[in-house]
Amino acid sequence: QVQLVQSGAEVKKPGASVKVSCKASGYTFTGYYMHWVRQAPGQGLEWMGWINPNSGGTNYAQKFQGRVTMTRDTSISTAYMELSRLRSDDTAVYYCARSRLGITMIVHYWGQGTLVTVSS
Amino acid sequence: NFMLTQPHSVSESPGKTVTISCTRSSGSIASNYVQWYQQRPGSAPTTVIYEDNQRPSGVPDRFSGSIDSSSNSASLTISGLKTEDEADYYCQSYDSSNVVFGGGTKLTVL
Questions:
Q1: Which residues 6+ apart lie within 8 Å of A38 measured at CB?
Q2: Best mutation site among B99, B100, B105, B106 for testing chain A: the one with the most A CBs within 10 Å?
Q3: In the prediction, which pLDDT does B1 show?
Q4: What is the DSSP letter of A97?
Q5: With an 8 Å Cβ cutoff, is A63 touching chain B?
Q6: Partner-chain residue, chosen from A44, A105, A109, that has the shortest CB–CB distance to B101
Q7: Is A107 on the interface with B (CB under 8 A)?
């Protein structure tokens, strides 16, 4: 069965960077795009972008361009999302989510989420 | 970019049927698939409908999805409501470059 296991909660100071990992199992890692979605406390879901684990190609939401970097390590079936120049309004739960077979823009399987708290 | 608009909240009694709408602001609702996610408090979202009207295995057939081109909207219908259906529900669609989520609807089963 598809499993996405994310790294643990992080506390960061404003201006710092955070890197969240997402280890995939139960399927061919390079066969499906990986999306990153965040959710601020009490708010809705916000799409950040995707990475093609096969090629390493990325597509970032305009809001995050210049601050977000998505990478992957195919040898350990793990995707990463790094967000830099953190602000207090970046406090959120960050989810990785795998796409559907053949339709890269459908978010289908979700990780458990990683809480990132930005506070001085 | 387009937007997906959902009602902020809906409520209904156990055993009844409820429908949650998701209206696309520009472009045809039929041009790209719509998905629906359920999110219970403190948990990650899970897919209840994908590709407009398909249910993942394990999702009861009380959940159904549809699209209506005349209103440019998608709908999630839950019949035979149970207290366990109380959750936030989000629609999702996309265009060539972006994934878009609706703002979410809080379903209360009272």
A1: A45, A46, A48, A92, A93, A94, A95
A2: B99
A3: 86
A4: E
A5: no
A6: A44
A7: yes
In angstroms, rounded to a whole number, what is the distance separating the alpha carbons of residues B5 and B23?
5
> Which residues from chain B sit within 8 angstroms of residue A46, using beta carbons?
101
A52-61 pLDDT, tens digit per residue, is: 999 999 999 9
| Residues in chain B, total | 110
Query: In the predicted model, is pLDDT for residue B62 greater than 90?
Result: yes
C-alpha–C-alpha distance, residues A106 and A92, integer Å: 22
The one-character DSSP state at B54 is: B
Q: What angle do CA A86, A89, A94 make, to 5 degrees?
A: 75
Letter for the amino acid at B26? S
Q: How much is the average pLDDT of B43-51?
A: 97
